[in-house]
Design goal:
2 copies of one chain form a homodimer.
Chain A: H1 15-22, H2 26-34, H3 41-53, H4 60-67, E1 72-77, H5 83-98, E2 102-107, H6 112-125, E3 128-132, H7 138-147, E4 150-153, E5 162-165, H8 167-180, E6 185-189, H9 196-212, E7 215-219, H10 228-239, E8 243-246, H11 249-261, E9 271-276, E10 289-292, H12 295-310, E11 321-324, E12 327-329
Parallel strand pairs in A: 1-2, 1-3, 3-4, 4-5, 5-11, 6-7, 6-8, 8-9, 9-10
Antiparallel strand pairs in A: 10-12
Helix pairs in contact in A: 1-2, 1-3, 5-12, 8-9, 10-11
Chain A binds a DNA duplex (30 and 30 nucleotides) through residues 14-16, 24-31, 34-35, 38-40, 43, 58-59, 61-68.
DNA sequence: CGGCAAATGACAACCGGTTGCCATACTTTG
DNA sequence: CAAAGTATGGCAACCGGTTGTCATTTGCCG
């Protein structure tokens, strides 16, 4: 067997192979490929030709090890199977790919511990992190942001760059919508206690309710999953309200199902407002009135902010806070309050 | 300024730091951590204590570079925003994490070129690849599988390990279901031409239709997206069939919406069967009759098959083909054929 | 107590690039 | 034409681990 065959094995080519082929040093190859100006045009062309001929693909591990930059960005979401994150993930993926970065997607399973250990892990294997709906404490997030570039989505901590989706203001729109339909007894179906979004929405809502003189009570907390909707629906019915504003569309859709099972008509007997306008909100039965926002774009903006931090080239005008607009999309799940 | 401060910087600890702290060589630290038997118990304990004290976290890049194993597995899906892949991704993610691997998720945008270049890219940065619904040619897949461990999902190429979802047999069940409801003019709403699943389903379906003496025609191809449903619905209505078996639930749901808009009742005027039982299939209007399968489990099985190949420890009983069962879930979108 | 094998740990090369520093060669200028 | 400056490419250290090789220590045996 030709054990000492000099070349031609199927092993991926390295810069050393190129260097040997061109009769130059490996460092020259490295420069030709990453700092073209640092090398004579003719030499560079020879090297580029050789690289193409050998199907050279740089080894990202080696690159990362020596340069310190990994070319990867971690994206942490609490629950991959929550449709809300689909569009977000797609937004980050598209924008990252466009910038030549790789996305490391991690499902933190709604757990602050998993999230914390993932952040620590990623410190070595990613250049930056995007954390959606973090379950970490403010302090932990601040500490993490001090160690490496980090952008949050839907989590406002002073000193940490963030993309915020302005659901509180949309919550106000939702309340006004319900009031204009004659509802006076309204419930807010809360999400996880550790969710800042949920807290902020409730604050806005209770304040606005007081101003407008309507009764808004809080139910929950409920896990942000469709199956939580059953308990939420029962609680809403029991509390005697005629309309609900749910933490998110998953819960809202779960409520629709439960209400239907119990023979309670939507919107005749009970109006439901969701949040996020996820996949499915437009074709459930009845279609869900919900607070919509450009989620994919939120992902893109988060990536832009992170990359601006990673490559602080031109003008230092890197924003560190971006608020995405939100609006109420009215569909069939809200209607006039029952006369009762 | 204490520029030459000997230690205590916030830089992550390396095995050299541990070695210095314990007064041993770096190689000993490496062995203590990865080959515990190779080192004296007492030495090992000292090293472990030091590692814990310094919060040592191994640098995965360096590890990958020197050992050749990256500890990562690439997962390629054609479209992240297709709910079908949510459960699949969750299955792979869970199983990979359990085995200590990292998941590199890539959206190949339904493009064979993106898919091919990603596979090439991943050759260096992942230990193996899982490709869902590949758009590559058989030859390309075979070549890729020869270069690195690879498992396909929903793509059957001889010589390439695969997890298959047995939708063809479910398609037969769907056909029988429709026949038993009195339908005799049925359409198959096809997916992309490059989708093997679609092709295989159509083959099964047309064969079964002939046996049973019913008329099944093929419509399409259609992109596997909800918005394709409109065109599909129009085509179905125009073709005069009374029932449709759609390539997937996205198209089916899109058809439901379009039919509703056009005032065509489901299932009174037209029955619709979907495929995959994705998120939303149970709460659309009407709820969709569809072919369901354990998708998350398919992801887990794919990971298991891949890992068995990566770590060929005990008995070489690594299967290279696994077929997931599928069954028809009947909901409200199918009903008796109209009398017409 | 000598001799031999097993256990242990140090040394150094290596994975595949990057980058600071230096020597050479070429160009420009006085 | 010499001095000075610039373009170019090589050398070697380094990133943080892994692993083969080998010297030394330890322990067991006769």
């Amino acid at each position: 067997m030709a054990t000492t065959q000099p070349a031609a094995v199927d092993r991926p080519a390295t810069i050393h192979d190129i260097a040997a082929l061109c009769g130059v040093a490996a460092s020259t190859v490295s420069r030709a490929l990453s700092t073209p100006d640092r090398v004579n045009v003719r030499t560079r062309q020879r090297i580029e030709a050789a690289a193409a001929q050998l199907h050279y693909i740089p080894n990202s591990q080696a690159k990362a090890l020596s340069s310190g930059r990994t070319g990867a960005v971690g994206v942490l979401v609490p629950d991959i199977t929550n449709p809300f994150y689909f569009d977000l993930i797609r937004g980050t993926q598209l924008q990252l790919k466009a910038a030549g970065y790789t996305q490391l997607l991690v499902d933190t399973e709604e757990s602050d511990e998993v999230e914390a250990s993932t952040v620590e892990q990623l410190r070595k294997s990613a250049d930056g992190i995007i954390v959606a709906a973090s379950r970490l404490s403010d302090d932990a997030l601040l500490a993490a942001a001090a160690k490496m570039p980090l952008v949050t989505i839907n989590r406002d901590v002073p000193g940490v760059p963030a993309v915020l989706i302005d659901t509180p203001s949309a919550t106000g729109q939702a309340l006004d919508h319900l009031i204009s339909l004659g509802h006076t007894r309204i419930a807010y179906v809360a999400g996880p206690l550790t969710s800042q979004s949920s807290t902020r929405r409730w604050t806005t809502l209770s304040g606005a309710a007081e101003e407008r003189g309507v009764d808004v009570r809080r139910l929950g907390p409920f896990a942000p999953k469709k199956q939580s909707g059953a308990a939420a629906a029962d609680a809403a019915v029991h509390s005697g309200v005629t309309a609900c504003i749910a933490f998110n569309d998953l819960i809202a859709i779960g409520m629709l199902q439960r209400l239907r099972d119990r023979g309670i008509r939507v919107p005749e007997d009970m109006s439901i407002v969701g949040c996020d306008d996820i996949f499915g909100a437009d074709f459930c039965n009845p279609p869900l009135t919900t607070m919509a926002s450009p989620i994919e774009q939120a992902g893109r903006v988060a990536v832009s902010m992170l990359l601006a931090r990673l490559n602080p080239l031109a003008g230092g005008g890197a924003r560190n806070r971006s608020v995405m607009p939100t609006h109420l999309t009215v569909r069939g799940s809200t209607g006039p309050a029952p006369l009762a």
